[in-house]
């Protein structure tokens, strides 16, 4: 593993450099906990300073040199000092030596771990800091005794003291990607961030341990952590040093908190001496956090718990867990998660004897989308003779844990216990769900329909019909899906869960049809009933998110996408390893990033989704299709084609409802590879199919993709009575009156402006797109306007170029057919001449640089001006700036 790159800390680094070169002349000391990155920040700052301008001395104080006079500055001072000097004389002599060696340059004295300086060295540092041409920078560790001369540096206003906090989530993710030479999936990065608490040193040890133990694996170029961790001896030793020696009483406090956090203070003090709790808090081992009206106790650092739990003997661990369960049972399970905590403690301590407790806890864990914990508890409930109910829940959880084969075996093992319609309907729906989505058996739909007829109870039958409806939606049998779902809603005997599952089917279908207002209303109803269906069908959330995500993506509501990927479900799904949920939300994030022109984020996030859904039969194809779109946007046809092939391989036939997204991606792959005719033909056929299926919401976007290919005037759809066919622009205009929202009329305006050859209207449309954060569409509208203006040699071309350049500045690397219209047929030599001229080089300078004659350079420039439609170097500079591939890293 290579040396860790320096990531983040930009503001802190700039602050350090300003302290050295700023007009105030004040130094800077960073304080912080061990491993937070103080020393690395200091080294990076010192390495940035030019040695020809500054006389720089770097010092690393240590406990070894702290007992020696001037031991801390032994790397700076001469080996021998003049004899007979008083202590004050020695200090003046040392300052004179440094000034002499500086030879008139400003002095920079950098001291790492300044709290370990011996007294004479500390006094000398203070004296140097008082010199007009000297600056002291350095680091201090929190909680250490600091020599008085060093403390006086900031009290005398000679330096600024700045607390250096831990890395944030974004910087931690960047650091992980830098050291592993590839991105880390969002869930793994979040868990590693939480466990390290943003401490780079602890993060490094965690990664080393995970890599060494084979617990970090790479899928589709994305690193994923299994969550298992074998603590390396170096990491354990590091934590042991921080924890230090503990008395038996304080150890009991820390151990109980390690196994039980967050633990109510009152509950903890019933098991231990309150004085030991105070001692643990004073030593920084635990912290008290107020949660509503309760004061909770937590460990000061997550890794303390890891080490304490690993080092605790098994017998003691079991006793502590049983003690915690008894304590909470005695005071009563008052909070929502108390039942879950007691069940886990009972299970881990070997004292779990009540299958009902384990089953209730498993349901609660699954309701929080904690798939691993729910699986463990449900399996324990089944093994404790939990019977049919435990088997049903375990099979459901296994389905969402991508283990369908095991789920079928669990269900078949309890088939003999079905003695009522109620159990039969639940068994059939769970088995059908596993068979259809988990094993991709399309015949399951007919089996569900036939078996529903055998049931006599209307409530049980409604449950079966709700599942049949959503299965039929997913295989694109939409008329039957709508009829069945509406029948469930109309039936008074339907349970809440069955009704809301049916409503999700209708909401999804309305979204695909462009009836966004109806879809929004239906989704809001489902969300309002969440407390009533979550205990029965927590996975219904996924159906709701698919319906909501379809509406948001088709309507171009990027702010809405931002909201749902940041809500509680996203946090719970990520923390609980609910991969279908996190994978689908990652697809939405990638889609929003792509439309904003953030191609780096779009590609990284879509790869993240592919890795998370690698074992899924549900959304894997959609994830690869979005990856193909991101690669196509970046102008990478090989990657786009590979991703599309993987989308075809992993797409499940039972998810036919997703076909519009996959086929749109296929057309983008054609276009990225230069086959615009193939892309156009494919989109026209797709638009016809969507029209026949009644999916107007999807059809609008497909037609707009044709407009983006400059095919707004192309014929589409069936032949009319007059023998002609509607154009893409005309069909979009028709749909803009039927499909809800502000986006369809805007797309229709774009198409009309393209057909009418109106650059002014295209630029106005670009502004409206930009206001909606649809930056890629804005860029393409501005590019098309500029292309049309360029053909006319219009006077407003320069202003259009500036607007396009500003929009491109909001994007990463992007390349689309609309942008490639602006790429003139310049030879390589003409490009070289054009770029040098745009950067201000004179013709003779260009001639010398390229080994040409000045006359040849002038001839090249005249051809460039003619091809670009510009007059002079000022316009040339603006023209190149507005082209992908010039400033800003955008490539065409």
TrEMBL record:
Keywords: ATP-binding, Nucleotide-binding. It comes from the Bacteria. Residues 819-884 form the HTH luxR-type domain. GO terms for cellular component: cytoplasm. InterPro entries: AAA_16 (IPR041664), P-loop_NTPase (IPR027417), Sig_transdc_resp-reg_C-effctor (IPR016032), Tscrpt_reg_LuxR_C (IPR000792), WH-like_DNA-bd_sf (IPR036388). One of its GO terms (biological process) is regulation of DNA-templated transcription. GO terms for molecular function: adenylate cyclase activity; ATP binding; DNA binding. This is LuxR family transcriptional regulator. The lineage of its organism: Bacteria, Bacillati, Actinomycetota, Actinomycetes, Micromonosporales.
């Amino acid at each position: 593993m290579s040396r860790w790159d320096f990531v983040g800390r930009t503001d802190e680094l700039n602050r350090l450099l300003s302290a050295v070169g700023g007009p105030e002349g004040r130094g800077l000391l960073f304080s912080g906990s061990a491993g937070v990155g103080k020393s690395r920040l200091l080294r990076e700052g010192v390495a940035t300073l030019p040695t020809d301008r500054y006389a720089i001395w770097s010092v690393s104080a240590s406990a070894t040199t702290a007992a020696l006079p001037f031991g801390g500055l032994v790397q700076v001072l001469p080996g021998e000092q003049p004899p007979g000097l008083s202590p004050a004389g020695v200090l003046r002599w040392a300052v004179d030596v440094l000034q002499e060696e500086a030879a008139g340059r400003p002095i920079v004295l950098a001291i790492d771990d300044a709290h370990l300086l011996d007294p004479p060295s500390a006094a000398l540092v203070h004296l140097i800091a008082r010199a007009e041409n000297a600056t002291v920078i350095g680091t201090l560790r929190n909680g250490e005794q600091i020599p008085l001369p060093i403390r006086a540096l900031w009290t005398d206003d000679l330096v600024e003291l700045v607390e250096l906090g831990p890395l944030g989530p974004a910087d931690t993710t960047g650091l992980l990607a830098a050291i592993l030479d590839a991105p880390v999936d969002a869930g793994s990065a979040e868990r590693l961030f939480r466990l390290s608490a943003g401490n780079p040193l602890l993060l490094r040890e965690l990664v080393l341990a995970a890599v060494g133990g084979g617990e970090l694996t790479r899928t589709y170029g994305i690193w994923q952590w299994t969550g298992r961790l074998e603590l390396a001896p170096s990491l354990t030793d590091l934590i042991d040093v921080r924890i230090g020696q503990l008395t038996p009483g304080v150890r009991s406090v820390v151990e109980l908190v390690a196994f039980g956090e967050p633990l109510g203070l009152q509950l903890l003090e019933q098991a231990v001496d309150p004085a030991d709790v105070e001692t643990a808090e004073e030593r920084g081992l635990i912290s008290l956090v107020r949660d509503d009206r309760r004061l909770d106790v937590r460990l000061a650092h997550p890794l303390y718990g890891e080490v304490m739990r690993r080092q605790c003997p098994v017998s003691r661990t079991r006793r502590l867990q049983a003690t915690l369960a008894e304590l909470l049972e005695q005071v009563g399970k008052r909070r929502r998660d108390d039942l879950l905590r007691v069940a886990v403690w009972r299970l881990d301590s070997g004292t779990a004897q009540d299958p009902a407790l384990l089953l209730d806890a498993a349901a609660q864990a699954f309701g929080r989308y904690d798939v691993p914990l729910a699986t463990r508890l449900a399996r324990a409930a089944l093994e404790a003779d939990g019977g049919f109910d435990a088997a049903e829940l375990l099979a459901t959880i296994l389905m969402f844990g991508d283990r369908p084969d095991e789920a079928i075996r669990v269900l078949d093992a309890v088939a003999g216990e079905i003695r009522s319609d109620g159990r039969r309907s639940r068994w059939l729906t769970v088995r059908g769900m596993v068979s259809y989505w988990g094993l991709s058996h399309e015949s399951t739909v007919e089996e569900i329909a036939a078996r529903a007829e055998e049931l006599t109870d209307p409530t049980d039958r409604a449950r079966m019909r709700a599942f049949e409806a959503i299965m039929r939606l997913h295989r694109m049998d939409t008329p039957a899906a709508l009829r069945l779902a509406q029948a469930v809603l109309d039936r008074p005997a339907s349970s809440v869960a069955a009704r809301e599952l049916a409503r999700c089917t209708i909401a999804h279908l309305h979204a695909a049809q462009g009836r966004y207002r109806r879809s929004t209303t239906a989704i809001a109803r489902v969300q309002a009933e969440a407390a009533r269906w979550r205990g029965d069908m927590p996975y219904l959330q996924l159906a709701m998110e698919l319906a909501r995500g379809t509406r948001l993506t088709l309507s171009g509501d990027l702010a809405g996408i931002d909201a749902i990927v940041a809500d509680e479900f996203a946090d719970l799904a990520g923390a609980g390893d609910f991969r279908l949920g996190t994978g689908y939300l990652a697809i939405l994030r990638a889609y929003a990033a792509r439309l904003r022109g953030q191609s780096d984020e779009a590609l990284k996030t879509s790869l993240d989704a592919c890795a998370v859904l690698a074992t899924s039969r549900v959304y894997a194809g959609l994830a690869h299709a979005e990856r193909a779109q991101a690669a196509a946007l970046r102008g990478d046809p090989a990657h786009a084609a590979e991703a599309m092939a993987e989308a075809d391989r992993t797409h499940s036939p039972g998810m036919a409802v997703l076909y519009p997204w996959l086929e749109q991606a296929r057309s983008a792959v054609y276009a990225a590879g230069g086959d615009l005719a193939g892309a156009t033909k494919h989109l026209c056929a797709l638009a016809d199919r969507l029209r026949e299926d009644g999916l107007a919401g999807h059809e609008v976007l497909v037609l707009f993709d044709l407009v983006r290919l400059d095919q707004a005037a192309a014929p589409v759809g069936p032949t009319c009575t007059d023998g002609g066919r509607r154009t893409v622009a005309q069909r979009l205009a028709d749909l803009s009156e039927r499909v809800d929202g502000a986006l369809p009329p805007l797309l229709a305006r774009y198409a009309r402006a393209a057909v009418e050859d109106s650059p002014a209207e295209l630029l106005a449309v670009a502004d409206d797109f930009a206001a909606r954060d649809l930056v890629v569409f804005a860029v393409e509208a501005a590019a098309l306007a500029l292309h049309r203006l360029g053909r006319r040699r219009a006077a407003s071309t320069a202003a259009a170029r500036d607007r396009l350049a500003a929009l491109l500045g909001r994007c990463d690397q992007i390349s689309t057919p609309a942008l490639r219209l602006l790429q003139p047929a310049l030879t390589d030599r003409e490009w070289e001449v054009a770029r040098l001229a745009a950067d201000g080089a004179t013709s003779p300078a260009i001639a010398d640089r390229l080994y040409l004659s000045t006359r040849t350079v002038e001839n090249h420039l005249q051809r460039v001006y003619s091809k670009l439609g510009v007059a002079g170097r000022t316009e040339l500079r603006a023209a190149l700036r507005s082209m992908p591939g010039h400033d800003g890293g955008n490539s065409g």
